[in-house]
Amino acid sequence: MTYRDIVLERDGYRCRQCGTACRREDADVHHLIPRSLGGSDDPSNLVTLCDGCHAAFHPNLQAKLSRRFIERWGLRLARWLDRTGKVAEAAGNLGPALRLFGLERFRDGQLPVVMAALAGRSVLMISPTGSGKSVCFQLPAILRPGTAYVLSPLKALMSDQVSDLQRKKLPGTFINSDLDMAEKALRYRLLERNAIKFLYVAPERFSVRDKAEVGRLGAVRPSFLVVDEAHCIDRWGNDFRPDYGRIAEIREALGRPPVLAFTASAGVDAQKRILASLGILGAEVIVRGVDRPNIGLMRLPAERHARPAMISKLLSVHVSGKAMIFVPSIRIGEELRQALAGLGHDLPFYHGRLEPPHRRESLLKQFTGEQQPEVNRIICTNAFGMGLDVPNVRLVIHYQHPASVEDYLQEFGRAGRDGKPSLAVLLVGTNDRGLLEFMASKTVEQAKRSSEEAARLLAAKHASIGHMSEMARPRSQCFRKSLRGYFEGNSVAHRSSLVMKIIAWLFSSQSKVTRLAFCCDYCSGASMSTFERIASKVLRPSR
């Protein structure tokens, strides 16, 4: 029996100050002589108090203690109103779990995912990088028994997320080919002893040649099967990583746990393909953050020969924060870098083949401010920092439109993560599709599929390029409305129940983001003079 239990039992579960009866989970134990003055933790120096009386003794902690008091009574009301008996029960430990993660409240959009997961439902969440998707699966996993399997595409992402878990003192690890046999065996023993809460692996881990290793993974019945970067299912599953198309089989082998899938970008059609591939057609789909009201969207007409000069002019507008210029290929990136250097802009160029490898890591850290000298402007391919979250990117320029609307959302969405005004500029020419279709053909050739499969894959890629090309046409229609329709379809927002409204009031917060008066080129006009006028108002640093 703990000292706390001894004191509560001694005092009859009643506040010694006001006499109020307390449930065990609601009662507080107070030091008569504070620890700071030499008081001990012995029962003789402890007394039972209710929340209100406890707060009176600790004026510096009044807000925290009062908040917990409000949480408890709010949950009691929710339980009384909850006819299913499931919603409020699932929310019972949200407060302590949030504080375990160092949080006071959920961000906008997180709570519905967490509640669905705690209810045992599968979920696909589409939300921008940096919006807190990790908490949406980490917190439910903490509150449910067992280990959560997290399928992650890149070793660097696994390492980063496990390091973050360890800083929070949460037991997580990864298994990949970088580990030696002894270290791998130790991690499997910890998994089998239920000593790990999160296990990060790539889907390929379930099809390695070592069948004993596959058997050890399959012997565990995970609490959740988490699919990070779920857009890889739609793209990589048909190309160079076919195991991303076999996750439904992995789930079956693991006993059909609930699937929590997350991605920064997937249109309505891609959402359907992801759900079908995962075998969870009835899963709840939650889309957040497609409309970024603090980012002005501009499509500017510019042929290839004129783009370096136009980008130079865009960069010459004095802006605060950072700027990113996305290019479709390494060749074009090198040509642009040299052209901009000739125009007085010396920018580094990041791409996947940059040598030596440590130069890539160094450049990434310079852009995020972790390493000096800091880099504020960069040319990059889409290989630059999957999952990159830099709050003060103010300007994103696309040399031309990318190969899909999903890519475009993820790339321009790296601007304005802090909610402050930012601009995304897309340069558009008359024949931008040609290069992208050529690159798509090369990718399909490298996949080495049958002629029938190759034709189907190429048609799908051409369709994606076509969608983006049509949406990129300047002043064709409201750019923001087109983006929302592509990702959200005709979905109608469901009204929350009173129980969920109470739980949201207790544990969730609504983010306040300023909506720019400038929407897009269709709604507000598009020209360099417009850009300069808007930039002078929203991008220049305050003095």
Describe the secondary-structure layout.
Layout: H1 3-10, E1 28-31, E2 46-49, H2 51-57, H3 62-81, H4 87-90, H5 94-100, H6 110-118, E3 123-126, H7 133-143, E4 148-151, H8 155-167, E5 172-174, H9 181-192, E6 198-201, H10 211-218, E7 225-227, H11 231-235, H12 247-253, E8 259-263, H13 268-278, E9 284-287, E10 295-301, H14 307-316, E11 322-326, H15 330-342, E12 349-350, H16 357-368, E13 377-380, E14 393-398, H17 405-412, E15 422-428, H18 433-447, H19 451-472, H20 479-488, H21 498-507, H22 521-524, H23 528-538
Parallel strand pairs: 3-8, 3-9, 4-6, 4-7, 5-6, 7-8, 10-15, 11-13, 11-14, 12-13, 14-15
Antiparallel strand pairs: 1-2
Helix pairs in contact: 2-3, 3-21, 6-7, 18-19
Summarize the structure.
With 543 residues, the protein is α/β, with parallel strands linked by helices.
- What oligomerization state is this entry in? single chain
What's the arrangement of strands in the largest beta sheet? 5-6-4-7-8-3-9
Low-confidence runs (pLDDT<50, min 5 residues)? none
Structural class: alpha/beta
Estimated helix fraction: 40-55%
End-to-end distance: 62 Å
What percentage of the residues does DSSP assign to strands (E)?
Answer: 5-15%
Largest sheet: 7 strands, parallel
- For the CA atoms, what is the radius of gyration? 27 Å
Report the average pLDDT across residues.
84
Q: How many strands in all?
A: 15
Outline: globular
Q: What is the count of helical runs?
A: 23
